[in-house]
Design goal:
Elements: H1 4-20, H2 22-49, H3 53-61, E1 66-70, E2 79-80, E3 87-88, H4 98-102, E4 116-128, E5 133-140, E6 153-157, E7 165-169, H5 170-176, E8 183-186, E9 191-200, E10 209-212, H6 218-227, E11 240-244, H7 253-260, E12 264-268, H8 269-273, H9 298-325, H10 327-335, H11 340-372, H12 374-381, H13 392-419, H14 422-427, H15 438-460, H16 463-488, H17 497-508, H18 510-544, E13 553-558, H19 567-577, E14 580-591, E15 608-612, H20 628-632, H21 637-644, H22 647-650, E16 666-668, H23 671-678, H24 683-690, E17 695-696, E18 706-713, H25 720-725, E19 731-738, E20 740-741, E21 754-756, H26 758-763, E22 767-777, H27 783-795, E23 800-804, H28 813-842, H29 844-852, H30 858-904, H31 918-939
Parallel strand pairs: 5-10, 7-9, 16-21, 17-20
Antiparallel strand pairs: 1-11, 1-12, 2-3, 4-5, 4-11, 6-9, 7-10, 8-9, 13-22, 13-23, 14-16, 14-22, 15-18, 17-21, 18-19
Helix pairs in contact: 1-11, 2-9, 2-11, 2-13, 9-13, 9-16, 9-18, 9-28, 10-11, 11-13, 15-16, 15-30, 16-17, 16-18, 16-30, 17-18, 17-30, 18-28, 18-30, 19-27, 28-30, 28-31, 30-31
């Protein structure tokens, strides 16, 4: 028997039913289309933002055929790979002599005959801005040449045509406050140029650079430096040549081999896109090669599986609404001789129809929104799309996924519809069915087993087990939801009328409540899992970050020895232009013998100063030296963290030397340094400094409240002034002195180990010099303030510079967490809305009864609000718990890798925290459910229409 006629009728009924119930159909289509839209847009954005090899070459070469460059080896033969990135001397060839390396390479002589070329050189420079002075890079390159199209594009004004003109990237112009026509001066040679236009680099929209014609910056600067020795000469990069080969020929592999014989490395578009066989590449035998193919990770598969599950859970209740509202129609199909299979086919056909429409709408909307928001996406990613890259098979797979998901979402309602008797369907009676007692037991077993598998995968470092266990655990929670919903009905005994009815209604109608709760749980679980992992990773990065200065401070330091006479003017420049607060804390540097900052050329030609670290427990770091690896094998991550943060190990892995201190890290200062920079508010420490007692910030260097200071007083014969004061042989002194020991936490103070009063240093025969000042900042400085301060320091003689805190690199963690919270919130609202609509369809008889016994009109509003609140809050709480399983398991995987690295190198951090994103969880657990309830109440009509009770 041919089943096609039956399915044809089922599709015709489904299509007409979808057209008749436009609101419900639109809801289902939206639930299917939204995820399809997101996946389509993500696929298009990812494929378009990920540059192809051709686009990478355009970003590097423009429309040129190749880039030629000499190496540091001189004009000697070399071998290279076709990509032009890897190159080396031929195997077995002797290293070039210094004379060979010094010989110039005639690069233009290696160009194919009939080629045209451009030269390119860059150099760092300080230039004037509207606010002051900014550091940037200047590139000498004729960017107006058609060869540069695709690499550099004009956005406003015109290209430089004269040697007195210059162009800048849009990002630099914005930060510098410049406009087209403004004058820009290169500091040092004081060369002035007119800004004629702004440009952008499509591959790097955040580039900060200036462009001038070849010969307009470097050569005049060098001439100025040759005439005036006070001007530092330019520091340009090695030249590069961008070459356009003969028409139709390009730059071939044979051209590259010929250039390699003369010591020139070539990046050729033609060769990189169509490389020669390995048999023609001399370096191929020396290269091990590598694969650029990436495997689909378990995490991606998990996300895809959970996305399908989420769409099914979201759309399933909507199909249940349709099946319930079409009970009489389905009953008529059965009364006319239709089998249960044909009744199921009608519901499944509805899933296919709406799934297909949703898939097409989602794909179309994904294309449209990607094109509409393309400029915004490009600004966010920092590069222009070469073209909108479409992978037809991927888009088709996404559309098929939406179609299949629609059918799967209709599967459970179809089975329920097929089980109903014809009489119940025609009369509208729902009948009663007991909840399954097996499903919760299976759910508990799946939850326990899934959690165990995920944790095992985390400990063993197997992401496949993590993914599989996480999915299994979430499915286990899904199986337990009907029991949890049933338990909710018992909580309403002492509650007011409408919340009591809402809870009991949810428990009585688990068939519609459980899927909606599950949909919310699925969305929240994914968001919480990603948010927890992201938050934990951010805290780990923050822990591993080593600041160069105390956050919220800035230091003014002398740039030249003996420049202390200019410090008052430099301080004024900072205080007038930088957002500092309070008074400056002046500090100085200290040394023994002749100053190594001046007399560093001869071996043993200057003195040394050392703060001696005692040996033994509490002083020596057990994670370094003999027995460290054996100890690391026995340590947990927390134990290792405590040892790494102890004063004994604080300076062993990495120490930041600044403020003119050298390795001893002793600065000359007073109590104001403690307050402004160290952030040590201790009257006893301030009193000790006033009495001439040094303050030690790292207790590991103290023994019974004293430190050992070892000084080698070596004076250089060229140090006439100090040599005359200290004639005779060099001497070494070892002094024990009392110190005030600060708490352990101050051992991590960047750049300072001990603060010594000036009179104490002079008493010990040490030399002291004023070196700078610390300032506390009221807020972060803007670009304009930094440029103004730079310019003011330049006017003050340019004999001091500012050191600012290197903040932790900016990440998109906060944005990611916000997007996840918004996504989960939207899904929660949608699922709650579906449940409210289904509840309204089911509860008309109950509402009629309430109105008949005198319930006020507002009951309908409040009941809808509490029904929404129940679904949203239950789903959010369950989703939060379910989302912790994959997050914790993945962090355990990271912990395993970190412990392996730590045991290989005991000074490596193994800190792998698990941090809850409380802001995201709070937004989901408190704000979203309340918002869902309020919206449901606001959008529900309070008018009651009395009707005869069915029955």
């Amino acid at each position: 028997m041919n089943p096609l006629p039956g399915w044809r009728a089922a599709f015709r009924i489904a299509r007409r039913d979808a057209a008749r119930a436009k609101g419900r159909s639109a809801l289902v289509v939206a639930m299917i289309a939204l995820p399809v839209l997101g996946v389509t847009a993500a696929d298009l954005t990812y494929r378009s933002a990920l540059p192809t090899k051709a686009e990478e070459l355009t970003a590097e070469l423009g429309s040129a055929d190749a880039r030629f460059a000499a190496t540091s080896m001189g004009p000697v033969k070399l071998h290279q790979m076709p990509d032009g990135i890897n190159w080396s001397a031929p195997e077995g060839a002797p290293d070039p002599t210094p004379e060979e390396q010094a010989k110039p390479v005639d690069v233009p002589a290696t160009f194919p005959e009939g080629s045209r070329y451009l030269t390119e050189r860059s150099l760092p420079a300080a230039v004037t801005t509207r606010h002051g002075i900014a550091d940037t890079a200047i590139t000498e390159l004729r960017i107006s040449d058609p060869m540069m199209r695709g690499r550099i594009e004009l956005t406003d004004g015109s290209y430089p045509r004269k040697k007195s003109e210059i162009a800048a990237t849009s990002d630099f112009v914005k930060s510098a406050g410049l406009s087209i026509g403004d004058r820009v001066t290169v500091r040092g040679p004081e060369q002035t140029y007119t800004l004629t236009g702004t440009v952008e680099l499509p591959a790097d929209l955040r580039a900060d650079a200036l462009y001038a014609l070849p010969g307009s910056v470097i050569a005049p600067w060098q001439k100025s430096a040759d005439r005036d020795k006070t001007i530092l000469p330019p520091q340009p990069s090695d030249p590069k040549w961008l070459v356009k080969g003969p028409a139709g020929a390009g730059v071939t592999w044979q051209d590259i081999l010929a250039a390699n014989k003369r010591g020139v490395v070539v990046v050729s578009r033609q060769v990189a896109l169509d490389p020669p066989p390995d048999s023609e590449v001399p370096m191929a035998s020396m290269s091990s090669g590598y694969s650029t193919e990436t495997e689909t990770t378990a995490a991606v598969l998990t996300v895809a599986a959970m996305a399908v599950l989420e769409i099914v859970l979201l759309a399933g209740p909507a199909f249940a609404v349709g099946a319930r509202r079409s009970r009489r129609q389905l009953g008529l199909v059965g009364s006319c001789g239709g089998s249960r299979g044909q009744v199921r086919a009608v519901v499944l056909a509805g899933g296919a129809v709406l799934g297909g429409v949703g898939a097409l709408a989602g794909v179309g909307a994904g294309f449209g929104l990607t094109a509409l928001f393309r400029p915004m996406i490009e600004d966010y990613t920092g590069n222009r799309f070469g073209e909108l890259t479409v992978r037809p098979w991927e888009i088709l797979a996404i559309a098929v996924l939406g179609l299949v998901t629609g059918v799967l979402a209709a599967l459970a309602p179809a089975i329920v519809a097929g089980r109903q008797s014809v009489l119940e369907s025609l009369t509208g009676r729902r009948g009663t069915r007991r909840s399954s007692r097996v499903l919760p037991v299976i759910g508990v077993i799946a939850l326990t087993a899934g959690t165990g598998v995920a944790v095992y995968g985390g400990v063993a470092g197997d992401t496949a087990f993590v993914a599989g266990g996480s999915v299994l655990a979430e499915l286990g929670v899904l199986g337990c939801i009907p029991v949890i919903v049933g338990f909710l009905g018992r909580l309403g005994r002492r509650l007011p009328l409408t919340p009591r009815i809402a809870l009991r209604d949810a428990a009585r109608n688990r068939g519609r409540t459980a899927p909606a709760v599950a949909a919310v749980m699925a969305a929240v679980a994914g968001s919480v899992a990603i948010a927890t992992y992201t938050s934990s990773h951010a805290v780990e990065q923050e822990y591993d970050f080593v600041p160069n200065m105390t956050p919220g401070t800035v230091a003014l330091a002398a740039s030249d020895i003996g420049a202390d006479a200019e410090l008052p003017r430099s301080r004024a420049a900072v205080e007038q232009n930088y957002p500092v607060s309070g008074r400056p804390a002046d500090f100085g540097r200290v040394w023994a013998g002749s100053d190594c900052s001046v007399y560093y050329e001869e071996e043993n030609g200057c003195g040394t100063l050392e703060l001696v670290k005692p040996t033994g427990k509490g002083h020596a770091c057990a994670l370094k030296g003999k027995g460290a690896r054996e100890l690391a094998l026995r340590l947990s991550a927390d134990e290792h963290k405590r040892m790494m943060n102890s004063p004994a190990c604080m300076d062993e892995n990495y120490t930041m030397v600044a403020f003119g201190t050298g390795d001893h890290k002793i600065v000359i200062g007073g109590a104001d340094v403690l307050d402004t920079y160290v952030k040590l508010d201790d009257p006893a420490a301030a009193k000790a400094l006033a009495e001439g007692v040094p303050v030690l910030l790292n207790p590991a260097y103290a023994e019974r409240g004293e430190v050992t200071l070892k000084a080698a007083h070596i004076y250089n014969d060229r140090d006439k002034k100090n040599r005359a004061r200290h004639p005779g042989k060099a001497r070494t002194t070892t002094d024990r002195m009392k110190v005030y020991v600060a708490p352990d936490r101050f051992a991590a103070t960047p750049g300072i180990r001990m603060i010594m009063p000036q009179r104490t240093a002079e008493r010990l025969g040490l030399h002291v010099e004023e070196y700078g000042s610390f300032y506390a900042l009221g807020r972060d400085a803007t670009d304009a303030e930094e440029q103004a301060a730079h310019a003011a320091l330049d006017r003050a003689g340019n004999r001091a510079y500012l050191m600012s805190s290197n903040e932790i690199f900016r990440t998109q963690d906060d944005t990611i967490l916000l997007i996840l919270a918004l996504f989960a919130g939207v899904v929660t609202l949608g699922a709650a809305a579906i449940t409210t609509g289904l509840s309204k369809a089911d509860a008309e008889a109950d509402l009629t009864t309430l109105s008949a016994v005198g319930a006020p009109p507002g009951v309908r509003r409040s009941l809808s609000g509490f029904q929404c609140l129940v679904v949203a809050l239950t789903g959010v709480l369950l989703g939060t718990a379910a989302g912790l399983v994959p997050a914790v398991a993945l962090r355990l995987t990271d912990l395993r890798a970190a412990l392996a690295e730590m045991r290989e190198d005991p000074m490596q951090s193994a800190y792998t925290p698990i941090v809850m994103p409380w802001e995201t969880v709070g937004l989901l657990a408190l704000v979203v459910p309340v918002l869902a309830g309020l919206l449901a109440a606001a959008l529900t009509s309070s008018r009651l229409t009395l009707a005869r009770r069915a029955g």
